[in-house]
């Protein structure tokens, strides 16, 4: 037992015994702890009160706060969890996985009644969405395995492909409007408003344009670096390409155009561009939005020539809301039914699957207004959970952008996070009445295959960047996972700060190049004597 107890412990035991024999005098050794006096106190009380002393009332015992459960301990524990190397990676996987699970559940709840009434299969829409979710998880798996150099090289091809698809879509839609048709096709390609159908596969080129803009814009801005302070560097080729995308996307889909605008603003903000650039960008954006609202009277988007401008009607409804009783069955049906769903839900909702407004009362309940179904069936608590998950996603994305050391990764992470968060804000703000209705889907949750696949691909790129954080990369290399885990899930990221070592100079090379070394043989010219470098012969002979 001599190896267990220290010298201080032995002193404490001796002092306790001495105090018991010496009449209660407190005497502690220098190494004794504060527990010695507490152990002596019962020995003093055992002798009873002194004669003539007034008895004292017992003081109520005050329980000491539990260690680790007070406010300071909780904050310290949370700070310790956030300081771990792979916290960004696990936070990203957790919030994205929960949002995807909530999305599949709510798509089934919002579409089961209508699918059963039309086709007799209540799970038709959720099955299709689950197939796209599996494809999106595959895209996530591929994207988290790719290095930053691959993303840099993919930016330009994806941008050209998205622009080509948008041009084909707009040409076919314009032809359909001229011929007074709902859709137009050319061979296996068919266009309908915002979607292209290629051989039975439904695509939305505007979703691909978001991801392409992230990759190409981050690579361009990272390559220009400090030269972005000059207007001519921004004008070639960033602003022309952005303007082209705004026209091609915004003509049919104003909400996606606003999302692209937020993406570009986040990209330039992360690059540290001067505020005057944002002022000019805001002015140009407002002018462009005004033009896109005006062309809706000519047939842009869902509008029709000669009919009411639906985009202007949405703006007017937002700035001057009408009386719901006068327009609930005509001009503001979706606006009115969305508010009614939120009011019907209350704090805890009516229960999952028990909502009534999805019985074909609320237009686009499975897509643009799925947040209203969440509010009706899950109540305020469900809405707070969804908002909290998007807040965690925003924190994690900007945390990754702040921690990575590569400029391209920092810019791309900021752009992807701005894209997803701004899209969620625009959708939820339109549902609850804080923003105009734009018809933009809610990421992870709304029904839509192309949007879900591209969103999960963006999350996969963020996961790749999270593993490339300096602390995360060092931790993964310090304790590498098994080989089969690296093959199946993701390879090890490169270590930060690794540079190629310079080549070892040859043995005979000194500080002076060999061509300038002095010759020590007999052919060396004596010091101070200049060799004859004059050209021999006459000028005519030299010309010959």
Structural summary, described in words:
With 544 residues, this protein is an all-alpha fold. 60% of the residues lie in helices and 3% in strands. It has helices spanning 7-21, 35-45, 71-82, 87-119, 124-145, 148-178, 205-224, 231-235, 238-250, 254-271, 275-294, 310-319, 324-327, 333-345, 370-403, 407-432, 449-467, 470-478, 483-488, 539-543; strands at 184-186, 189-192, 195-198, 201-203. The chain has a 4-stranded antiparallel β-sheet with strand order 1-2-3-4, covered by helices on one side. Helix 5 (124-145) packs parallel to helix 17 and helix 7 runs parallel beside helix 10 (254-271). Mean pLDDT is 77; it is low at 1-49, 51-55, 57-68, 499-525 and 527-535.
Question: Keyphrases for this structure?
Answer:
544 residues, mainly alpha, 4-stranded antiparallel beta sheet, 60% helix, 3% strand, disordered N terminus
């Amino acid at each position: 037992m001599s190896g267990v107890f220290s010298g201080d412990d032995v002193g404490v035991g001796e002092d306790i015994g001495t105090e018991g024999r010496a009449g209660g005098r407190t005497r502690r050794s220098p190494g004794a702890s504060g527990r010695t006096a507490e152990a002596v106190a019962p020995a003093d009380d055992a002798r009873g009160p002194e004669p003539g002393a007034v008895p004292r009332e017992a003081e109520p015992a005050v329980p000491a706060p539990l260690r680790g459960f007070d406010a300071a301990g909780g904050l310290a524990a949370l700070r310790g969890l956030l300081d771990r190397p792979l916290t960004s990676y696990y936070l990203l996987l957790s919030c994205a996985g929960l949002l995807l699970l909530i999305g599949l559940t709510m798509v089934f709840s919002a579409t089961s009644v209508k699918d059963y009434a039309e086709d007799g299969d209540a799970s038709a829409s959720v099955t299709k969405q689950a197939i796209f979710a599996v494809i999106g998880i595959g895209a996530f798996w591929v994207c988290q395995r790719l290095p930053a150099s691959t993303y840099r090289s993919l930016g330009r091809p994806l941008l050209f492909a998205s622009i080509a698809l948008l041009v084909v879509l707009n040409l076919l839609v314009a032809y359909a409007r001229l011929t007074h048709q709902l859709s137009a096709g050319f061979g296996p390609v068919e266009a309908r408003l915002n979607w292209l159908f290629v051989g039975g596969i439904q695509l939305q080129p505007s979703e691909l344009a978001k991801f392409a803009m992230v990759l190409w814009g981050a690579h361009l801005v990272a390559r220009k670096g400090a030269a972005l302070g000059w207007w001519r560097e921004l004008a070639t080729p960033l602003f022309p390409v952005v303007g082209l995308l705004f026209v091609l996307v915004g003509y049919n889909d104003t909400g996606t155009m606003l999302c692209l605008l937020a993406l570009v603003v986040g990209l330039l903000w992360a690059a540290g561009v001067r505020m005057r650039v944002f002022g000019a960008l805001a002015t140009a954006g407002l002018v462009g939005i005004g033009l896109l609202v005006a062309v809706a009277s000519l047939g842009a988007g869902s509008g029709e020539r000669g009919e009411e401008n639906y985009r202007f009607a949405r703006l007017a409804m937002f700035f001057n809301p009408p009386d719901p009783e006068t327009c609930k069955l005509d001009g503001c049906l979706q606006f009115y039914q969305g508010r009614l769903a939120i009011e019907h839900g209350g704090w805890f909702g009516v229960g999952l699957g028990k909502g009534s407004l999805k019985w074909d009362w609320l237009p686009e309940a499975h897509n643009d207004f799925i947040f209203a179904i969440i509010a009706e069936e899950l109540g305020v608590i469900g809405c707070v959970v969804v908002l909290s998950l998007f807040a965690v996603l925003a924190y994690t994305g900007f945390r990754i952008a702040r921690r990575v050391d590569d400029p391209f990764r920092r810019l791309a992470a900021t752009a992807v996070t701005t894209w997803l968060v701004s899209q969620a804000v625009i959708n939820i703000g339109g549902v609850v009445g804080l923003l105009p209705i734009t018809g933009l889907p809610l990421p992870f949750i709304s029904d839509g295959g192309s949007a879900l696949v591209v969103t999960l691909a963006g999350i996969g790129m963020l996961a790749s960047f999270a593993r490339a954080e300096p602390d995360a990369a060092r931790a993964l290399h310090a304790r590498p996972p098994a080989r089969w885990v690296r093959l199946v899930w993701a390879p090890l990221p490169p270590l930060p700060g690794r540079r190629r070592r310079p080549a070892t100079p040859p043995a005979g090379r000194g500080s002076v190049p060999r061509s300038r070394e002095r010759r020590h043989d007999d052919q060396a010219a004596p010091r101070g004597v200049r060799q004859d470098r004059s050209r021999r012969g006459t000028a005519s002979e030299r010309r010959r």
